[in-house]
Write a structure and sequence with these properties.
There is one protein chain. With 364 residues, the chain is mainly α. The chain is 76% helix and 1% strand. It has one domain: Up-down Bundle (A middle domain of Talin 1), CATH 1.20.1420.30. α6 runs parallel beside α14, α7 packs parallel to α13 and α12 packs antiparallel against α13. The longest helix has 32 residues. The N terminus and C terminus are likely disordered.
């Protein structure tokens, strides 16, 4: 299976971004746009190579591999922004990744798969387990925000310690969830649907897949650094707030790998793998990537990052997880449920677009 030609054509944006970066460094808007377009096919190749690595594994392992390498783009972008002290952009991109995966990626997968198959069936027990983990993630994001807004001035000095300790708990529970899904209860994540083997699409050799992963990741890292350097200037020039750029634009760019893979496997009626990619990716962002960034901020950034998200971000995450849990609980999906998820994403995007630029929180 080859990457769609439309994504391959976008690879021309990689040298264009390189040329603009070194010859026209003040063209921030053009650099931002070409960098965004360049990351999309690179993330697609990264996800494509991962799919080949996962071809002979279970749906749970395949979903984990796709989620992990699919999140590489988001993690790289976040680490570079973190090094530059852009904490609000980092938090916005985390929010965008969480809601983007459970609403946009899963919604697009359900819609595309549902148009080809009347009913998309998956293991309800595994989906409910993932939904419970996502609810835990929502609690972990809501409580630091509640602590900040309800605790008053005295609470601000304790937020870094609070966030660090919550981060350790989240990493521990994420590790436990991997043991649960990959070892002790892996039968809960096995597909109830027999998937026909495709002819003429033998998986790549491991060496080819690993080289593709390495090259894609290295190029994403470089383009991400260029992207982060131009994001603030480009946002102002395009009339967008930095929160909208982080929650919607950067998240869509970073989710390109999950988009391409989840939609393709859903159309093959491999809905367990599509669910594993979308929900597993959101879960990994909330329970692993966010805590890792909190810990990394003690070594990378000018100051530690906390887990205090804005009320708008917390609300968006909580509502996204609520509707995803509702849709994933019965073990079946269809095109209308995919459209419902996409509608919620569009509504949230409109809200974030019109949301005024927030002033930095006191003490941050």
């Amino acid at each position: 299976m080859k990457l769609k030609p439309s994504l391959d054509w976008l690879l021309v944006c990689v040298p264009v971004t390189l040329w603009l970066h070194f010859t026209k460094p003040d063209s921030h808007t053009a650099i931002f746009i070409t960098a965004c377009l360049a990351i999309v096919p690179l993330a697609g190749w990264l996800g494509h190579a991962t799919e080949h690595l996962a071809a002979r594994t279970s749906e749970a392992v395949g979903g984990l591999l796709n989620a992990t390498f699919g999140n590489a783009a988001e993690l790289i972008i976040a680490l570079i922004a973190l090094k530059n002290g852009m904490h609000e952009v980092v938090k916005a991109s985390l929010t965008g990744s969480i809601i983007g995966n459970v609403l946009l990626v899963l919604g697009a997968a359900c819609l595309a798969g549902g148009l080809k198959h009347k009913i998309l069936r998956f293991n309800a027990a595994g989906a409910r387990a993932q939904a419970s983990m996502m609810l835990l993630a929502a609690i972990a994001l809501i409580l630091p925000a509640a602590f900040h807004y309800l605790g008053g001035a005295a609470a601000i000095s304790r937020e870094a310690d609070l966030s660090l300790e919550i981060a350790v708990v989240l990493i521990a529970i994420y590790a436990a969830s991997l043991v649960f899904s990959l070892r002790t209860h892996k039968q809960m994540f096995e597909s109830p649907v027999e998937v026909e083997e495709e002819e003429g699409h033998a998986p790549w050799p491991a060496t080819r897949a690993l080289v593709t992963l390495a090259v894609s990741t290295a190029l994403i890292a470089w383009v991400s650094e260029v992207l982060v350097g131009s994001v603030e200037h480009a946002a102002k020039a395009l009339g967008m707030t930095s929160v909208f750029v982080g929650v919607i634009v950067v998240a869509i760019v970073g989710n390109a790998a999950e988009h391409s893979t989840a939609i393709v496997v859903a159309m093959k009626n491999r809905m367990d793998l599509a669910m594993g990619i979308a929900m597993g990716s959101s879960m990994q962002i909330a329970l692993f990537v966010a805590p890792v960034l909190v810990i990394a901020s003690y070594f990378l950034g000018p100051k530690p990052m906390d887990l205090v998200f804005t009320p708008a971000e917390v609300t968006a995450v909580a509502l996204s997880i609520a509707i995803t849990s509702q849709i994933s609980g019965d073990g079946e999906s269809n095109w209308l449920e995919g459209l419902q998820l996409l509608a919620v994403y569009v509504i949230l995007g409109i809200v974030f677009y019109f949301l005024p630029e927030a002033h930095p929180q006191a003490g941050h």
